[in-house]
Specification:
The chain is of the alpha/beta class. It has one domain: NAD(P)-binding Rossmann-like Domain (Rossmann fold, 3-Layer(aba) Sandwich). Helices cover 40% and strands 14% of the residues. It is built from eight helices and seven strands, in the order βαβαβαβαβαβαααβ. The chain is globular and about 55 Å long. Bound molecules: nicotinamide-adenine-dinucleotide (NAD). Nicotinamide-adenine-dinucleotide binds next to helix 1 and strand 2.
Amino acid sequence: MAPESMGLLSGEVALVTGAGHGIGRAMCHELAGEGAILFLIDVDASRLTASLNALRDAGAEADGALIDLSLAGSGVMAVEHALSRFGTVQMLVHAASPPRSELDRWDVVSDQTWEAMYRVNVSEGFQMARHLAKHWIGEAIAGRMLFVTSLHAATPRNLPHYASSKAAMMMLVKELARSLAKHSIRVNALTPGAIAAGGFKPNPDLQAKIPMQRLGESAEVAAMGITLLIDRFSRYVTGSEVIVDGGLGLYNWFDPHDA
Ligand SMILES: NC(=O)c1ccc[n+]([C@@H]2O[C@H](COP(=O)([O-])OP(=O)(O)OC[C@H]3O[C@@H](n4cnc5c(N)ncnc54)[C@H](O)[C@@H]3O)[C@@H](O)[C@H]2O)c1
């Protein structure tokens, strides 16, 4: 890991949700590698502790809070925890999302599962963003936000609560980006394809449908995501979606056998 003084995010604080596992955890390591200070949010205590320990062992400054973002008021609470711990926050990465069960199809998905998906992905994501944006405007901070969305924001997945919440998240990115750009605040979406992380259990035949012929890794998504938080690479980028999917989004029903 680069010493803090050498990183492109030296001394800046990032609030990362879903930081205990998968893409959120990988984002923490990318951020720490650029000298950022981390404040981790997760609902799973053992994942949160393991992630914090790994970051500290690697020399990063990191702290965190056990917060369930499916509860009303939790987003503002997460921001307040990070602000009171480190005094300021310059970046938000919203990677948390409830587990997806393939059984939760349109005819059986419960009100509770539907509500939790929307609350974590959309409602508390919005509350975190709004609370932070007000802080940033008040303090003249050129903050950056990154929302982890999904290819299923634009294509169905047999899980209406998941796909429709990701579509809502995508519009949230655009709304916030447009409103906040004049305050030098950038808001972008990072869209993974099929990534071998905890939240996704692939069918065995999926790999063949991916033009690059393999699932992606969380670290590969995070390596792209970090560029959207660093002004050197993306200072004129807001309201954009960057897709990291090995070409999966190019797959469609026309699939000639000799291709
Ligand atoms: N893995 C994929 O293939 C894939 C594809 C497209 C989009 N995504 C998106 O990427 C993000 C991360 O996915 P992943 O596969 O790395 O997931 P993951 O399950 O590996 O990690 C998600 C983390 O979020 C935490 N979390 C879940 N519910 C929470 C809650 N209520 N409050 C706080 N934390 C909570 C979990 O404990 C976990 O540590 C999600 O937004 C997901 O929708 C993943």
